[in-house]
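pinned: reference chain
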Amino acid sequence: MVRRIRKQREAADGIHLDASPVFHVGGDLRPLSSPELSTIVAHAFDILSTVGMVGLPKVATQRALESGAWHRADGRLCFSKNMIRNALERAPRHVTLPGFTPDRDLQIGGRRVHIGTGGAAVQVLNAATGDYQDSQLSDLYDLMRVLDASSNIHYGVRPVVARDISDPLELDVNTAFACLKATTKPIGISFCDPDHIDPIVEMFDIALGYQGAFRDRPFCMAVIVHVVPPLTYAAEGIVMLEKAVRAGMVPQICSAGQAGATSPVTLAGALAQGLAECLAGMVVVENIQRSAPCIYALMPFISDLRTGAMSGGSGEAAIANAAAAQLLSHVGLPSTVSAGMTDSKLVDAQAGYEKGYTVALAGHAGADMINLSVGMLGSIMVASPEAMVIDDDMCGAILRSIRGIEVSKATLDLEAVERVVTHDGHYLGESETLNRMKSDYHYPALADRQSVSDWVDAGSLSIWEQARSRVPEILAAPPPTHLSADAEARIRAKFPIRLKP
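pinned: its C-alpha cells
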C-alpha cells in the first residue's frame, strides 16, 4: 500500500505519468494466494481438456479443430492445455476502449479500475411516487445523461431495456442511438440478432462523420453472452461475436454462472468453471481474428440457497468477484466483474452497505471494469437515476481509497513538523496543506459533512432528497452536443428512431 502512488505513476505496462494519475490501479487486495491461483487455473485447464464444451456452431468448431481441439467420444469439444496457453500468449493484455471523443478514451488492462453501468433492468423506480414502472426508451436516455454527468462513472453499458419498443431491430437501433446521443463516454450494448450489428455500425459511422469511422474509433462495445453455463456455448452469441469482431467492435464476452445452480456451489469451483468458460471464449476470438481485442467478464453470481434467488449484494458475491478480477489479471486478460448489485429494492441502508463493500472489494482487487455497479436496485431488475448519482458519490470515495497513501520524502517532512510545533501549533497555514487540499483529498458532491445543527438549519435533507433534486438539474442542463445536427438528421432519416428530438 505504501508504494501505491509510485505504482500508479509507473503503471502495470510501464507508462510513466509526471502528473497526478488520472486512473486508479488496484490489486493490493488478494483474496487468493499464489498457490490457490495456480490451483484454480490448473483446474480450469483440466475442465477444458477433459470435460470440454458443447454447442459451438459448425464453422467455429472447424476452426477450433484445425487449431488443435478434438472431440470426445460423446461429441464434447476439448482443448489441449498448450492450445490454451498459446492463445493466452497472443491475446492482448490491454485494450483501448475509445469514447466518442478522445478525452473519454479508456485503457482497459493492467488493473486500472473503471466503474460503469450494465444489466438489462426491466423497471425503473419513480422517485416521486415510489412506484416501479416498466422501463422505456426515455428512461434509458435519462440514465445515460446522468451517467455522462457523473465524474466517477467511466463508461455506460445499457442499464435498462426499452420495453415500449417490441420490434427487435427497432429496439437495438434505438438503444444504440439513445446511448450514443446521451454521452461521449464509451458505451456498450447487446443485440437481439446478429444481423442487427451491421446497420448499427453504419449508424455509428454516420454519427462519426464518414464510412469506416467506427472501425477507427469503436466507442461502443458489443456485450455478448458467449456461454450458457455450465460449459455450453451460446450458439447465437458465438455468431454475434464473429460479426462484432469482423465489424471492428470490441467485444465484452461474459460468463455468469450462478453458484449452486449453473456452476458449482463452492466458490472455488464456480470460479474455475467460469474461468474455463472465459478461456473457451478466448479460443473462439483468437480463431476469428488473431490477437483481436476482447474484454473478459467473469461474473460469479451467487444464489441464496434457501430460495434459489440470485443474491447480488451478498458477501459471497463480493469476495467471489474480487477473486474473479484477481484470476483474470493472473492469466493476463482484461477483466470485467460485477458489483453493486444490491438486493434492496430501495435506496436505503441495505443498498448502501451492499453496494459499498462489493464495489470496494472489486476495485481493490484490481478489476479493470466493474459492471452493474451503479444505479441498480432489486438484484439488477430495477434502475434509478437517483441511485446512480448517489452511487457516483460512493464511487468517488472508493476510487480515492484505491489510490492509497503516498509515502515519500515530500509526505514525511521533518522540517515541517519542527516548524509547526515550534511556531503556530497547527498545519492550517502550511503551503503544503493548501497545495494538497485538492490533489490528495476527495470531496463528495451529495454526502453531508455539516454539523448536526447546520444540517438541521439547512433543511435536514437526506441524501435521497438531495439526489431527487440533483437528477432534474442534470436533465435540465443542455445535453451533450457531440452528435451534430446534420448527423442526427441523417440517422433519423435512415433509421426508425423513436427518441424525441
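why pinned: DSSP finds 18 helices and 20 strands in the chain. The first strand starts at residue 24 and ends at 25.
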